[in-house]
Structure formats: structure tokens, C-alpha cells
Design a protein that fits this description.
Layout (H helix, E strand, L loop, with lengths): L1 H33 L3 H12 L7 H4 L2 H22 L5 H22 L5 E3 L2 E3 L6 H14 L3
Helix pairs in contact: 1-4, 2-4, 4-5, 5-6
Protein name: Membrane protein YkgB
Keywords: Membrane, Transmembrane, Transmembrane helix
InterPro entries: RclC, RclC-like
């Protein structure tokens, strides 16, 4: 009986991990592809140009080229995640890519003017970035549990 309960917990844990893995890959892939559009390139410009690590990129690249580069990085991380399901050695690289990517994107909350507003007495922001908190956590989990 105990073995059966433990096996069920392990199976549920594997299912949860795979949902997180492929869910994160889907989010990164979808958003990465969208970065190749002029709409998204314009939308991320205020974030990128006001950040202490990325402010200079528009001096050397166009708005669309910067967005394309970010999109390519997101797509590469998504592919690393997908292929890490078969090749465990890729998990470490996918996790490190996620950590760097989502630390930077979360920091946009603090470097972009006008990001925070007070609505009905509650501080709010552009919530699309908040998803990166969960993705950062998953990246940390992948790097830590690199089996």
C-alpha cells in the first residue's frame, strides 16, 4: 500500500513537472515568435530603453532588430526546454537561460517609468510581466534539480 501511494505521488510529480516544462516552453515560444512583429517591438521599447543593462541597444540596433534578438533568445530557451525532456544535459542551460531572462524582465517593473499605478487604492502594474516570477522559479528548480 505504501509503495502504491509513493508511486502515485511520484507520477503526479512527473506530470506536474512536464506540464510546467511544456507550459513554460509554450509561453516562451509564443512570446518569442510575437517579438518578430512590429507591435511587440514597439511595446517592449520603453522597457528595454529604460533598463540599466539594456538601455544602449537601440544605439547599435533598430527597434525591430532588438525585438528579434530577444525573440530568438526566448525561442532558443523554449527549444532547450522541449529537448531537455529527452536530453537531460540541456536542463541546466534552459534553466540558466530562464533565470537570466526572467530576472531581467522582472527588473523592468522597477526600471520602467510609469509601470506602477494605484487603482482603487491598490498598486497595480502591467501584469503580463508577473508571469515571469513563476517562470523564474521554474528555472531555479530546473538548475537545482539537474538530473
Amino acid at each position: 500500500m505504501v509503495g502504491t501511494v509513493q508511486e502515485s505521488k511520484n507520477q503526479l510529480s512527473r506530470i506536474g513537472y512536464n506540464v510546467s516544462l511544456f507550459g513554460a516552453a509554450l509561453i516562451l515560444l509564443w512570446i518569442g515568435i510575437f517579438k518578430f512583429t512590429p507591435t511587440e517591438a514597439a511595446a517592449i521599447k520603453p522597457l528595454v530603453e529604460n533598463h540599466f543593462l539594456t538601455f544602449f541597444v537601440y544605439k547599435i540596433m533598430s527597434v525591430q532588430a532588438v525585438s528579434n534578438l530577444i525573440g530568438a533568445i526566448e525561442i532558443i530557451i523554449a527549444l532547450l526546454l522541449i529537448f531537455s525532456a529527452k536530453f537531460a544535459v540541456l536542463k541546466k542551460y534552459a534553466g540558466m537561460g530562464m533565470i537570466v531572462t526572467f530576472l531581467v524582465t522582472l527588473s523592468y517593473l522597477f526600471t520602467t517609468p510609469g509601470m506602477w499605478k494605484v487603482v482603487d487604492g491598490v498598486p497595480v502594474t502591467d501584469f503580463f510581466i508577473i508571469k515571469d516570477l513563476m517562470l523564474l522559479g521554474f528555472g531555479l528548480m530546473i538548475v537545482q534539480n539537474n538530473k
